[in-house]
Structures are given as structure tokens and as C-alpha cells.
Specification:
The structure holds two protein chains of two kinds. The longest helix of chain A has about 30 residues. Chain A contains 16 helices and twelve strands. Chain B has one domain: 2-Layer Sandwich (Alpha-Beta Plaits), CATH 3.30.70.20. In chain B, the strands form two sheets. Chain B has a two-stranded antiparallel ribbon with strand order 1-4. The radius of gyration of chain B is 10 Å and the shape is globular. The chains are: A alpha+beta, B alpha+beta.
Chain lengths: ~400, ~60
Amino acid sequence: MAAAISLPLHMQRDRYDPPSRMAELREQPGLERVTTPLGLHAWLATRYEDVREVLGDATRFSSAGMPALPGSDDDQRAGNLLTLDPPDHTRLRRMLTGEFTVRRIRRLQPRIEQIVDEHLDAMERAGSPADLVEAFALPIPSLVICELLGVPYADRGEFHRRAAIQLDLTRPLAERGAVAAESRAYMGTLVDRASADPGEDMLGMLVREHGAEFSRAELVGVASLLLIAGHETTANMLALGTLALLEHPEQAAAVRADPTATAPAVEELMRYLSVVHSGVPRRVTRDTEVAGTALAEGDFVVVSLPAADRDRALVEDPERLDVGRAAAPHVAFGHGVHHCLGAPLARMEMATAFPALLRRFPSLAVAGDPEFRSAAVVYGLRHLPVSW
Amino acid sequence: MKIRADRDVCIGAGNCVLAAENVFDQDDDAIVVVLQETPEGADAEAARNAVGSCPSGALSIEGT
């Protein structure tokens, strides 16, 4: 069973909002101290400029410095882009970037529209009410990433379960580690299958074009990350974003009515909700300073993405959701070399799914208490009961 | 204004293409390609937003 844990400041939320303490911290000089769920003592950056400074400088702030988890070996860590620095990170990321260009993702648009429509049809057939997470928010990005990667969608029950456990901070570390190893073993069988008979999907591309250059463990690591990052993040944005729109009906009406409102609305929902709390803690590589606070080599820095995205330095009236505002350069996808690789895909999925859902069910309403998911690497909703 | 793009620094996030499609494109590896070095009017405004949203710091503007 999940144990109750006390969440560090940068993982606390009150529905859509980071804790009010974040606003105080942004006004104070310097950085705050915080302890991560793994017991790491770190500095906490909350201001937009400070967060961009830390994430934007991989030389001073390393992603590779986290202490190794008990029981993890090199193979378990290989290919994890999140915990690599340039030039290793650059070399691995560059084999994937071509798959996520704006042009390549636009080619997927008709298929994404079809997937969204099929799920709306199924909701309509099953009838009101429904759990939006189960019927819409989770299966859509899941099916999209499965098709893109070449993962059998029939296996979703298992990989959804594993992903949820891996990201659940209330679970014992040993369990999360064991499940991460299971995920890798599963992906290993898919990589081997693709090596024997490479298809047109991304796994096929990886083994065909990069099989000689990268180890099996690296390919498995990269593919495992794509699978988990490809469905968990967008699923939570779709669920939480729908809730936010339904609780701001005039803004839902704008997205429903005007196709040109969609792109800025997606950016505003990303900014306002910033579902990824912070990403990987950064290790300070040499004595330096951020916001006047002296940081010593070996210190760790954690950034709060939601706090940075609620900074007045980014937008006026930052605590207000306003889908009509001009798209702001938020940090919800991160910043620097680790900026979300799948951002164009996530944007396309959201820009397709939100308006289609609102148009299909004009009377869509929240029909019970949404269940928020706080103690996880990605914030969001476990359940969202809706009716129409 | 003149747009500068450092293709060695670019990480291929594509934010610039979404912000200013007339000014930026990506090659097959997702690395930035500048279509207009000296955009004007609405394209200049869009290019400024694109530079602001570049996560890698590959883009910069010379002059005003």
C-alpha cells in the first residue's frame, strides 16, 4: 500500500496552484533550502529568471550528478536522456530529434484526429457519465506513442501500471526500482524483435539507423523513456486542462468556438498547470552564484517549474488562467538542452483533443470530485468524473 | 534586426517554427534553418517571440 509521505515544497499543489509560499519565495532574495523525497538537500529556485539560468547552463548545472539508486547498474541507467549531460546527451538526443520536427508531427495530425474521434465515439456510445482519465485523457496519448514507437497497444494495461508506479513517490524506492527494471526488460524484448525485423516505426528506425552506434541498453533506455514520457505527461495535461476549462466556462466557450484560440490556449494551460514539478535535480559543478546565493561545487539545485510559470516576470496577472493571452515563453516543457523532445507532439495532441472534446459534448460538466495526484513526478488527475 | 542562429547549440525543440513559421524552419535532424535573416513587420515581431522561447539559446538578434 502507498504510505503517506510529506511532500517537499516544490511538489505541493492546491488543485491547480503551487503553494502560496512560492509567491513569498519569489519576492525574497536568494534561494531557499528544500529536501527532495529521496532525502537530497538542495537549493530551490522559484523565479522565472533563476529557473531559466539553472536549466539553461548544463556546464554549471549537471543532470548526471544524482547519486546512483541502490540496486541500479549501468545497464539500468543507459540511454536515460534525463540524467545525461552534453556531449553524451547531445549524441543520443540527436538521433531522435528528426522524429519530432514540427513538420514530421504535422504529418501525424490526421491520425491523431482520427484517434481522438474514435475515443469520443466510444464515450458517446457508452453514454454519460464517464471517467475522463480512463476514457479520453490516458488512452489517446498512449495509443499515439504506441503507434509512433511500435509498441503493441494491447500491452497498455501493464505499461500504464508500471509507469504509474515508477512515477509514484509514495511507493518504496525498491518497488519503483524493480518496476523500472521490468519496464526495461519489456522494452528489451521489443528492441530485440525490432532488431530481427525492423518496421517503419521509431523502434525500427532506431535499430536500423543507430543499432551499430548505440548499445542495446542505450536503445532500450531511450525507448523506455519515450514510452513513459509520451503518455504520462500529455495524459495529465489533458485531464487537468479539461478540468480547468470546465471550471472556467467562458474560457471553455472560447476554445470551443474559435479554432484560432486553440494554440495560445494550449500554451496558457501548459503555463498555468505546469504538470511536471521540477525535473531532475541539478548538481553544481563548480562554485558559483544564483540570485546572490553562493552555491558550492557538489550542491544540488531543484527548480520549481510551476512557481517560475506563475512569476510576474513572465506574464501579467500570472495567477489567473487566461486562454486569451498571447502565448508566453513558459518553462512547462523545461528549458535548456533537456527541453521536452516531444513538445511538438504534445502540443499537437492537446490542440486536437481539447476543442474536439468540447465540441462533441457541449454540455460536458464535472460530475463528482476529481482525484488529484500530488505525490508523483508528473502532477495531474487520477480520476475525473464527467457527464454530458 | 538581423537573426543569428547557432546550429551547433540548437537542440531541435521546434519552438521557433511554431512561433515564427515564416522566419524559421528545421532540417531533417530538427536543427534550425533561418528562412529570413532580416524579417520585417509581423514576421519581425514573431521572430522576437521565437528568440525568447528558444530553450537552447541558439537564437539571437542583432540590432533592433
